[in-house]
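User: I'm designing a mutation panel for Putative pre-mrna-splicing factor atp-dependent rna helicase dhx15-like protein and want to avoid disrupting the core. Could you give me a predicted structure to guide residue selection? Please restate the sequence first so the numbering is unambiguous.

Assistant: Good idea. Sequence first, for numbering, then the predicted structure tokens:
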Amino acid sequence: KELQEQQCWKQLHPGYPCTAVASRGPTKLASVGEDGRLCQLEQGRHEPVRCLERADSGAPTCLRFVRHDHVAVGNLAGHVHLWDLNSPDRRPTQDLFWAGEQVTCMGQHPSQGHLLASGASSGRLCLWDLRQGRLPTATLAAPAQGALADMVFEPEGALLFCASNGSLLRWGNPGLPRGGVELESLVRPQGRPLNSLDLRGPLVATGSDSEAIFLLTLGRD
């Protein structure tokens, strides 16, 4: 069967690209664009629930729900802003800062929701503890060359991330405050960027600029 459009929101970011979309459950959605506008959406409603004008002036690149009505927005100025979509306040509830880096992707730990991972255009990774201050609690210079494009946590807590050099890597212990770093290469550099990543159970899918899709099963050689 062909895919059919179920709903469309028009003019959410007039004249600007929409740079990221996030969802929470079957009905909650949010979008952010190069205009810095943050829109709260709901399936079945044709108009936005709420839009925050100029919510982010640092060229937002990524967006995700971190709690029921809270979203995190990462930008090229090295900031991650946390917003309460139900609050009348037009200021972020938290402003995290990664000095000298451009945030390109984010992932939240599945069982420790206070842990938020971010990737940068430099290929570096960092880990934030949302209960603490605004600076990263841990950083890692990954062996990937170029920007990190997407990341997702496994249910057990390991972090998968893909990069613009076409590699897919696994950080085995990002939540551990001590101990050595465990990095595993799942896909070696392909010459074309890997730009997206998803995980369902043991199955991993990652897409490439070469229009190829790599399918892997975790735990198998």
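For picking mutation sites, this is relevant: Residues 101-220 form a domain with the Methylamine Dehydrogenase; Chain H fold (CATH 2.130.10.10). The two ends are 34 Å apart (CA to CA).
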